[in-house]
Specification:
Elements lengths: L1 H15 L6 H8 L9 H13 L3 H14 L4 H16 L3 H14 L6 H13 L10 H16 L4 H30 L3 H14 L6 H49 L3
């Protein structure tokens, strides 16, 4: 009976393969993929392999199994970080940011905390848009990097963060200058001056100092010119009003004098 069953299987394989028969076909048919060992080490190893092969969703599955099946194992902590990394690499930045935040909250003394802080900032940094766009992500990235440097000044990730903090400041300064220049072109000089002076106050030394100082000087000249023009206009209006009043008074007196 067993021989008969095997013969049926072989006949089926011949039909499916267009009668092209070889021993490798039989081997591949009967060969089963070895199951993943349900051990912390096995699950973590398979998750890491899938991650390195850019199979991020599959990697998360193994890391999640490890976390759920062995929550007290030391590798479960690394699995938490692996889940966050896989989300980041899969460009699921909002979910990744939350996962890194949870890691820093759950394991505040873990040696990988500086890395988690750095990656949390990177979730925002990679989403920074052009200078004419909203800079909320820039502000958030800068804040995360600054907190990392403040808490772990000796970490290698703090060294990387300091460079990115400077880049964030430059981006914010460029955004402020872009808005200020728009106001300047629209002849809204008071609003423009407020933006330019804000750059000198908040983002000094990032590379825009000379440019901003030039625009501040030009803006103040335009404001002074506007004030002068406004004053001259007011004086002309006062003189005109006084002339009209004098003319009206003279007319009234003449009318009064003509009465019998």
């Amino acid at each position: 009976m067993k021989i008969k069953n095997v013969s049926i299987i072989l006949a089926f394989l011949l039909i499916c393969s267009g009668c092209s028969f070889n021993t490798s076909t039989i081997v591949s048919f009967f060969k089963k993929s070895p199951p993943v060992r349900s051990t912390p080490e096995g699950l973590y190893s398979r998750g890491t392999t899938e991650y390195q092969d850019s199979n991020y969703k599959k990697a998360r599955e193994y890391y999640t199994r490890l976390k759920e099946e062995y929550p007290l194992h030391e590798l479960a902590i690394l699995a938490e970080l692996g889940i966050a990394d896989s989300l980041y690499s899969d460009k699921e930045y909002a979910e990744a940011e939350l996962a890194y935040h949870d890691f820093t909250s759950l394991y505040p003394t873990n040696e990988n905390i500086p890395y988690a802080f750095y990656q949390k900032g990177m979730c925002h940094y990679v989403q920074i848009g052009a200078i004419d766009r909203d800079q909320t992500e820039t502000i958030k990235a800068k804040g995360d990097f600054e907190r990392l440097v403040a808490r772990f000044p000796q970490s290698k990730f703090s060294i990387l963060a300091e460079k990115l903090i400077r880049e964030c400041k430059l981006k914010l300064a460029e955004h402020e200058f872009y808005v200020g220049n728009l106001y300047f072109k629209m002849k809204k000089y008071a609003a423009a001056l407020k933006r330019f002076e804000g750059i000198t106050r908040d983002y000094a030394g990032v590379g825009l100092d000379l440019k901003v100082e030039t625009y501040i000087a030009q803006t103040k000249v335009r404001i002074a010119e506007e004030e002068k023009e406004k004053k001259l206009k007011e004086e002309k209006e006062k003189a005109k009003a006084a002339k009209i009043k004098a003319k009206a008074e003279a007319k009234a007196k003449a009318k009064e004098a003509s009465k019998p």
